[in-house]
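Private note to self, pasted from the team thread so I don't lose it. Backbone tokens:
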């Protein structure tokens, strides 16, 4: 990918005083902006600052997401206020420690979303976007269902458990097939493919028209928030996940 000047940089290693989670949410918005917590019917999810398992510094973010039942379980932290338009390059770096050997197929770890591009005349905003999803055999993939695209999968590099794993997800954003999609796991290239990675107005219009609904994708088309953690845990297992050293760059 071309190396342009970085016009947006966000970094956080989850260091706080006295393990105070609320230090991550200062009034000036310089750190994180929100928590997404959707508890399943059978339990309560958890989020906290932890020092039992940390990669760099003394602390990390601990996520505990109960298994889903009638309600899809979610537990993650969100950074809003982004401005990643079509044509820009976004690079997301994070370290994960999944403290489990259970089957975690369909677990979602990172969501990049555009809520404002949804047609307000159509109910139930789906916040179109792309996601990192765990597939069978611990193979991390780029899931594009919310932009009406097929999953970009890989078969070479599995995601280790009970150890720190470095993820680098880098994309040149496009609503067409010239988008660039790269995924690195512990420094090894797992995915390098062209393909759309933003909502496409024509595809959305055609999909909704097939159900008799008028839909117009709103402009400007930008990704405006990232969620990281167990953005959805549809598995049959309670999962404990630690996250450290998150970095986000946007270049144009």
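Design output:
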């Amino acid at each position: 990918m071309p190396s342009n000047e970085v016009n947006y940089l966000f970094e956080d290693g989850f260091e706080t005083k006295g393990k105070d989670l609320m230090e991550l949410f200062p009034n000036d918005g310089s750190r994180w902006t929100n928590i997404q917590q959707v508890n399943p019917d059978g339990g309560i999810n958890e989020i906290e600052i932890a020092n039992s398992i940390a990669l760099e510094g003394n602390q990390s973010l601990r996520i505990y997401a109960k298994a889903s039942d009638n309600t899809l379980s979610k537990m993650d932290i969100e950074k809003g206020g982004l401005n990643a338009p079509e044509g820009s390059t976004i690079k997301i770096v994070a370290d994960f420690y999944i403290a489990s050997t259970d089957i975690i197929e369909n677990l979602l770890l990172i969501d990049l979303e555009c809520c404002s591009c949804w047609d307000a005349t159509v109910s139930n905003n789906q916040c179109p976007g792309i996601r990192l999803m765990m597939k069978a055999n611990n193979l991390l993939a780029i899931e594009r269902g919310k932009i009406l695209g097929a999953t970009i999968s890989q078969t070479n590099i599995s995601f280790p458990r009970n150890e720190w794993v470095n993820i680098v997800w880098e994309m040149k954003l496009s609503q067409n097939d010239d988008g660039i999609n790269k995924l690195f796991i512990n420094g090894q290239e797992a995915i390098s493919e062209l393909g759309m990675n933003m909502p496409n107005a024509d595809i959305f219009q055609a999909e909704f028209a097939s159900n008799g609904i008028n839909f117009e994708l709103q402009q400007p088309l930008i990704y405006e928030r990232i969620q990281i953690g167990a953005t959805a845990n549809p598995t049959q297992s309670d999962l404990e996940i630690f996250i450290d050293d998150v970095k986000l760059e946007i270049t144009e």
